[in-house]
């Protein structure tokens, strides 16, 4: 035969006491968490706002919008049909007058030569001399007019060249203005972004610290409970059953059993008695 042995394993008393202490501390920690002032975490802004440099970048960009328009206006004025006039030399007429006066002086110097030629030819005061004088004057007038036109053309060409140069300059200045504006806005935005990122890191660290402080009782209880669980897992617990065979009969039992067997055999096989 076999018999079943039931054994109930209990952890040591110090582990059981530690578990009870953990439950008590956990209840306290939950109570502290429920009663904690969450305004430090929930009532604060943990997102970094716009940096002053970023605001300055926006202001600069807005102020610079259309800053190239005056340059375009100036370029357009120079490109118009009368745009060259603003580049005409204010001394051009004086130059023309002075040049023509010098021309007239030189032209007058040629008349005595005509008279000398007429005297040498014996035609002084005659019709031939008059014709020569008329031809000389006509040629002089044509040369004078051509010289004046040349001077006017030189002034116009120079003014046109200056107008074209001004158009290119104004367009380049407009582009440069926009380029410098973009560089300023970009630099301000970059520096402002760096400052904002640093501020965000500080706010995030502050938020994490406040959350850690708020959760500290629960965190400590959790760590303590993990330690208790590790200790309990190292000891056998629960209920166990074992089955083992019973021990054999004793000598007395064996003797009694043998005696009973022999007595039965004797009663069965002995001869009957007569009365």
Taken as a percent bin, the fraction of beta residues is 5-15%
Tally of separate helices: 8
Total E-strand runs? 2
Report low-confidence residues grouped into runs of 5 or more: 238-244, 248-271
Task: Give helix % range.
Answer: over 70%
Form type: rod-shaped
Distance between the termini: 48 Å
What does the largest sheet look like?
2 strands, antiparallel
Biggest sheet, strands in spatial order? 1-2
Brief write-up:
With 275 residues, the chain is mainly alpha-helical. It has helices at 13-34, 39-42, 52-64, 69-79, 92-109, 111-120, 127-233, 251-269; strands at residues 2-9, 238-245. α1 (13-34) packs antiparallel against α7.
Describe the structure.
It is a single chain. The chain contains eight helices and two strands; from the N terminus they run βαααααααβα. The protein is rod-shaped, with a radius of gyration of 63 Å. It is 74% helix and 6% strand. The chain has a two-stranded antiparallel ribbon. By secondary structure, it is mostly helical. 4% of the residues are buried. The chain has a domain of 159 residues.
